[in-house]
């Protein structure tokens, strides 16, 4: 191996072709190294996602699956998303999709195919009014009553809610779901700040 990394002077000078081949080989292995580093980073992120999701009271009837987006509208980030998992992996209509453990992204529509499914974002107007509550920063572990709100999905990736203008809502107040019309897996999930 030492000959390939640092040839001894006794072997004579390397031809330009040999040097070119060594440089090409080095560059190929360097590319493979960085590919593996990126793959490791991706896998570490997936492990963190699954650990975070497991902490949020996944019931015994829940299954944690990792999905990627395989299609969306050309018009932008709003609207339904095609996921690369389907009934073959255990996806059912009304399955809950979360990001980073507790951020509710949306619900799977009735369009579940064998290898793909359609995700309707939680901010889609077809979801109708959504009931939730406000959790001011630093109060997540308290037993106090949280202010209830009705959220109106805007269809633009946001919600609207009517609140009393006299209320002071602290910055970074979380909005969490408490809506009997949504699946059990959506309850308590965060939908915004």
What are the SSEs and their pairings?
Elements: H1 2-5, H2 16-55, E1 69-72, E2 81-83, E3 96-99, E4 103-112, E5 117-121, E6 130-135, E7 148-153, E8 159-160, E9 174-177, E10 190-192
Describe this structure in words.
- The protein is an alpha+beta fold and 193 residues long.
- It has helices spanning 2-5, 16-55, and strands at 69-72, 81-83, 96-99, 103-112, 117-121, 130-135, 148-153, 159-160, 174-177, 190-192.
- Strands 1-2-5-4-3 form a five-stranded antiparallel β-sheet, with no helix packed on it. It has a five-stranded antiparallel β-sheet with strand order 8-7-6-9-10, with no helix packed on it.
- The chain starts with a helix and ends with a strand.
In short:
By secondary structure, the chain is α+β, with helices and mostly antiparallel strands. It has 2 helices and 10 strands, in the order H-H-E-E-E-E-E-E-E-E-E-E.
């Amino acid at each position: 191996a030492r000959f390939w990394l640092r040839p001894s002077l006794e072997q004579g000078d390397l031809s330009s072709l040999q040097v070119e081949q060594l440089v090409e080989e080095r560059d190929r292995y360097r590319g493979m190294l960085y590919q593996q580093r990126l793959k490791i980073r991706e896998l570490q992120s997936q492990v963190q996602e699954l650990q975070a999701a497991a902490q949020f009271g996944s019931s015994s009837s829940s299954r944690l699956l990792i999905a990627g987006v395989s299609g969306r509208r050309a018009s932008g980030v709003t609207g339904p998303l095609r996921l690369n998992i389907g009934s073959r992996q255990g996806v059912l209509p009304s399955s809950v999709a979360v990001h980073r453990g507790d951020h509710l992204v949306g619900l799977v529509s009735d369009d579940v195919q064998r290898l793909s499914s359609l995700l309707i974002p939680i901010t889609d107007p077809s979801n109708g009014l959504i009931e939730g509550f406000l959790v001011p920063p630093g109060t997540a572990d308290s037993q106090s009553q949280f202010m209830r709100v009705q959220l109106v999905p805007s269809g633009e990736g946001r919600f609207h809610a009517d609140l009393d203008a006299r209320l002071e809502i602290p910055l970074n107040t979380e909005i969490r779901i408490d809506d009997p019309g949504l699946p059990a897996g959506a309850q308590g999930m965060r939908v915004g700040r």
